[in-house]
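Fold this sequence, please.
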Amino acid sequence: MNKTINNSKNILSSQLSRRSVIIAGLAGIALATTGLSENVSRVAATQIAQPPAGKTLLVRSDIHPSVPVTWLSNGHQIASGGKTSSIDIWDATTGARSSSINYSSINNSPFAVSPDGKHLVTANNSTASGTTPPPIATVWNTATGQRVLNFKNPPVVNPLAAALDIAWSPDGKYVAAVYLNVVYVWEASTGKILHTLNPNGNISRVAWSHTSRYIVAGHDALGSGIINPQIYTWNSDTGALLYKKNGWATAISISPDDHFFAHADNNTVKIRSLQSGAIHTTLPAVVNNQVVAVGWSPDGTRLAYSGGSTQSVMFDGYVNVSVLATGKTLHYTGQKMAVMHLSWSPDSTRIASVSLDQVVNVWQAR
């Protein structure tokens, strides 16, 4: 672990020195710059070996752009939202659907996949017409699409409120969700509430550290009227708040060594120390565009971030992949509209990204 942490420190130190050179000498250049359905098109490979970085491998349409996309741990399957109140599990190479989860309140719902890929948890994101509040979180079997468990609701529930984000701990034991500006932590196997983390502030995003020891939460900048957004970090074992820092967190991603976390802050990405919250570096701003998704590669060498215009129909979507050791950036241009979600494959070679025009692309990222 110490070797991995030192490597991560060296990577980010190198990035800092190169960034000053880039800003001084190259101002204006962004560092971060077979059974297929009719909605799936496969891009023919031009090489037998690994495709070149930036090459689109598959395009799958008719998905819901407000729902995340997540790569399963087997590296062969992807979960994404459908437009018919469902979450689809499909083959990352062919696009063929293997299973679906159908539930009336899933449409637009955030979800998270268990580390072993066998289960999926959805956060309730619907309004209830009756007097009985729906479950805030539900666990499903990814292979069969069957419901496994409804989590216990907290004491205070608003039937018209939505759970805004949800995350499964990397050790597989816990699930955290943002509901009514509070982070609730459940035991994944029983649905029992273990912690109630109240920041006494506004939050809508949550993420686990890779050791499952820390939880980071913040609020996204999209359409928000919040004046003083803050980011919070807790010890997940004790529930103690470690610190809070000013800034937006439209998306949060924690480095695999748990030494840093990255968050989307308006039109840039900030990298902070996970232990203290101190800013380590800030990537150059994306001119006139929001950053709405951030993802650290599983091998820790790259940071991907994406966005575009989210309030109007403009063809300015982007995904940038920054190589932290060199400052070199891959600019992916395979999607036209704002790219709202992204997910790395477990082997850190491919990215699945979802854009506002209801398309998910799978492409070579290195």
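The CA atoms of residues 78 and 140 lie 15 Å apart. The radius of gyration is 20 Å.
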